[in-house]
Amino acid sequence: MYPIHILFEDEHFFAIDKPAGLLVHPSPIERRAPNAVALIREQLGIKAFTVHRLDRPTSGVLIFAKSSEAANKLNLCFAERRVQKTYLCVCRGYTEEQGVIDYPLKEIIDKVADKMANPNKPAKDAVSRYRRLATVELPIPVSKYPAARYSLVEVKPETGRKHQIRRHLKHIFHPLVGDTQHGDGKHNALFRHHFGLDRLLLMATRLEFVHPFTDENIEINAPVSPWVDQLFTQFGWQGHYPAAANSSQEASVPESEPRFW
């Protein structure tokens, strides 16, 4: 069960804190899997018009419109890059303190959902800005190294390509922890074994835009989940990220204490 938690609402839009593991809308691949659009209708009685998407394993701020007119206006804001998105992630190794990843990405084609798509399309421009917030070295051997190093990174993508942050961080040799498609299996296994982690450590923590109806500056923030907060506290990363909410919205929080090193 995924309870829907609203972060922001007015007469035109509303934003939820999407749990990791929840689809945004129905999928032709997993027709019976829960999705945010259906749960919003069931739990809140609201017809949700999709404006943007988050990958299934990504948690955080997800905004919807309450009408097709509102959806069209905010879709235009996204298309014209007038919406600023901020993500928090954990990646392998120590990244540079800050940087810009300007690396075009080819479209990811799904064999089932994108049967009519052209696999030979040229790569599209993709830009992500990042800054390192904190680091940790764990005294746990991994691969050929005696210890494992990780960075807490804030990323602001300027474009919206599929899996952009995940692919960009992999491109600079700092794949995200918990990423089963673009990540490092050895480090994913380390987090699974020592911390009970079975999710991607990528969270959409902030969304900012000028309201297309009122011209107000809107900022919507989502805290990390209590379990992620517990993990980050163990790493000494307090104060570098949005604090956890009082209650969990994630179904994947372990019932028992994670095993630390």
UniProtKB/TrEMBL annotation:
Reaction equations catalysed: uridine(65) in tRNA = pseudouridine(65) in tRNA
Claim: Nuclease is one of the keywords in the record: no
One term of GO molecular function: RNA binding
Domain Pseudouridine synthase RsuA/RluA-like: 12-171
GO biological process, one term: enzyme-directed rRNA pseudouridine synthesis
Keywords linked to the UniProt accession: Isomerase, tRNA processing
Name listed for the protein in its UniProt record: tRNA pseudouridine synthase C
Catalytic activity, EC: 5.4.99.26
Top-level class of the enzyme under EC nomenclature: isomerase
A Pfam family reported for this protein in Swiss-Prot or TrEMBL: PseudoU_synth_2
Function: Responsible for synthesis of pseudouridine from uracil-65 in transfer RNAs.
Keyword Isomerase belongs to the record: yes
